[in-house]
Amino acid sequence: MVEIARNHAVGIENIRFEIGNAADLPFEDNLLDFIVSTGSLHHWKSPVKVFDECYRVLRERKDGYTMGARTLPKAKLIS
Predict the structure, then answer these.
(1) Burial of 44 (0-12, 13-18, 19+ CB in 10 A)
(2) Of 5, 30, 39, 77, which is most buried by a Cβ count within 10 Å?
(3) pTM for the whole structure
(4) Are the C-beta atoms of 37 and 7 separated by less than 8 Å?
């Protein structure tokens, strides 16, 4: 999924996709403008820790979006 996202974002300078541990984000405090996570919530062992980490790394008045897998509509993957 990350590779597909990277391919779709070719030419966009201010975007970065990372794979890692959501409960231990490798970013400085107040660094990010936007976080999105789709279809992963049901895998988190400690959702509160993940949300705390998102809050820690997001700049003030910036956004984070999470969507659980059970709420995702059925979609055809186009590659």
Answers:
(1) middle
(2) 39
(3) 0.70
(4) no
